[in-house]
User: What shape does this take?
Amino acid sequence: MSRKLAGSSLAAVAAALFATVSPVSGQDIKIGYSGALSGPASFTGLDIKRGAELAVEEINAKGGVKGRKLVLVSRDDEHNPVRTVAQYRELVERERVVAMIGATNSASMLAVTPIVNDTLKVPVICPATDATAITENDAAKAGKENYLFRIGMYGTGQANFIVDTMVKKFGHTKVALLNWTGGWGVTGRTELQRRLKENGLTPVADETFDSSDTDMTPQIIKIKNAGAQSIVNYALVRENTLVVQTKQKLGDDTPYASAWGIAGPAFWKAAGASAEGVLTSTTITIDGPQSPERLRLIDTYRKRYGQEMDAPSSFFGGYDAVFLYALVMERDGVDPKAIRAGLENVPAFKGMIKDFKRPVFTKDRHNAITEEDMIMTRWTNGKMLEIKYDDKGPYVDIDEKTKKYLDKKNLALM
Amino acid sequence: MYFFFQIALSGIATGAIYGLIAVGYSLTFMTTKALNFALGMWVMLGGMLTFSLSVQYGVPALVALPMIVAGLFLLGLVAERFSVAPFLRAGSDVWVMSTLAVGLLMIDFAEIIWGRSPTPVPSFLGNTPVRLGPLSILPQQLFIIAIACVVFFALDLFYRRTLTGKAFRAVAHSGEVSALMGINTRRVQAASYAAAAAFAGLAGFMVVPLTLAEPQMGTVLGLKAFAIAIIAGLAAPRGILFCGLIYGGLEALISGYLYTGIRDILGFSLMILALAIKPEGLFGRPVEERA
Assistant: This one.
């Protein structure tokens, strides 16, 4: 028996097993989720699942959708695109899910995108994966029905947002790049270069680093010598920790902004006080003043899972995705095609990430979060505080009563 | 000049780590002509144990250090017994694979025990930079340079002045002749493998406050240390520290003056060049067999 055959028959056996244990009745409406529930990306994967899970429970407690119960069927793809593809097939063809919540790995989503659009034809809302081509895919370009939607950051938009914040909001024209040579850092670097160019700028320094580096001294000094007013980058927690520790060692206070790889408590845990003042773009922060609805969910999360939320954008993304599906299914029925079309026709939606007062998606825009919706946050004493703007300039709300303005030059609190 | 010296200084600290690991390759090569190709994974194990002891169990760093070094020495003895000795005895080269296999097993176990996320291990010396005139360096980096120098000085004394050290050198020269002279070559070989593991553990302990602890942390470190051992000469422990420091400094200067992207290309090219010009290493002496 060939390996491939053995693999697929194993998958079939596993699928049969799962099918018998899933708590289903003919009347239930199933939403599928495949993402990393183990391994290094599981902090994101679990939070997506938890968000979806809590949303499903809330909807069922209020009578479900059209009187039918919602069921979330989850699979662990171990952050592995090969598994993601197999699980998408299994969930759609065997479990008969009518909609999917997106995975944790951009590579996974890029692998399933053509399959979803060409054969599976169920809508997918992605909370975590930011590769631009997931939503701006071949089907979209050909004007065919595009089943991929996103309620999270997307590559092009995030790079635009980071560069524009530094250049337009803070007036920094001497911007340096300092990117990770890993996959995400490479695409990020290209995007940042592109946006700087569109702003008529060239980076004053364009440095990189490896995952294995133990020290960033050469890069930081070069950037400093180039007269950079700020540094922008794409990297994950480990590399960013080294950068901020080296900056601290060298007494360098050049403002530093990074994409949403460090938008969670893991960064402060790793970097500690050297992370003070670092900027991170993201969709949502649960630090600083919050709405009562969010506070309630944050509290439920803490009680239910016995820990603090690791990836708020993933949790609330999963939560909002399920509520969006419920809203559309209640109105347009549970046929996957109808749900897909319905998503393009939601005129307003009070989500947890954002209160959408405009259509969440349109035919040509499958990214719910646009550049205007992204937020820049500042790591301040262990909290990721959203930077807001008024006539006097950028500020953060330390708490309900204390408002602190930022010095545009070094982004220090004034 | 600040630029040059600041970069060179931090590079030298990194180089001291390479040197500490590289000496492990030399130790086993000298006694058995075999290498522990997984030394980087042993560094990782030292780092992860540092995390467990000092962060999870709150053991003071200076108590944790001897525990880790002793622990890895013992583990090294066990690993040698099962993954190297049987093949050496049979005159086979399978140890190349078996040492690597042990390393991969260690990564898998580490991922199961500690998970794959990087975790910080604060330096027991604190994070306040030490100022040397206009230059600044982390106390941990200074500590690394100091420990590396002490280790190499002690090792030199050991090889030259102690009976055991002389036994090591004798076995290095010829196992058979040493055995005839009454040296327990088997024990020397096992001890050298265990000592290499212990040095790797020491390196892991030293480096982890600078890198964060994670199961993949040792892989590239081990490779770079290997390049240094080759450049210096596997049979030239004295030259290894020197080469390590120079390599680390050069790496940083390449990043600083040229470009980070070509740093490893230049580094590993240097290794191949060194092998081509002087196969026994810059500090190694050609082997002369007397008829």
